[in-house]
Design goal:
The chain is α/β, with parallel strands linked by helices. 29% of the residues lie in helices and 23% in strands.
């Protein structure tokens, strides 16, 4: 797995909502990711349902945070 630049080994688990992995307010999570980065957090675990984590993963990568995506499937 590729390691992010300036990896601290610290990370966080984002919300359990697979359809909005960084929350419902997309205007808010950019600032949250900036704050997480300033705190030294370089990993984010996201939950995906049918491709729902794409935008969140991209936002994390743009901020220098490595997303780890868990896949969720409805049976």
């Amino acid at each position: 797995y590729p390691r992010p630049a300036n990896d601290t080994g610290a990370g966080y688990h984002m919300g359990a909502n697979a359809y909005h992995p960084l929350g419902d307010n997309e205007g808010l999570f950019g600032g949250i990711l900036d704050e997480f980065y300033r705190c030294g957090l370089r990993w984010a675990r996201l939950l995906d349902a049918e491709g729902s984590s794409y935008n969140a993963s991209r936002a994390c990568l743009e901020k220098g945070i490595m997303p780890v995506v868990r896949l969720y499937a409805l049976h």
